[in-house]
Structure prediction request, 104 residues.
Amino acid sequence: MPKLFNVPGSRVRYARRLTRSNVSHLIAWLRCERIQATLEGRLMSKAKEELTKFIEEQPEDSSREEIIRELAFHVMVERGLADSDAGRVISNDEMARRIRSWPK
Prediction:
């Protein structure tokens, strides 16, 4: 069964397998939305306001667990974008090397 995820600012719930390609498209879309929000001066300045808006954007039939899962995903994407913007990135080859070094 495919994972469900919501695109922020949209009432549409997408049911797709979370593949590298899907996540890449979602991250690109979030970057565009963030840039647009900055240009329009719509960025939330308070955590409470941001959380309220995020929860209101979720479908009415969302369970508590679904909202928490969506929020966790949103936070992880935002952290990743912030790391990317700050240049805190590593190459795929370096990540593969690190994973291979993990104890089995």
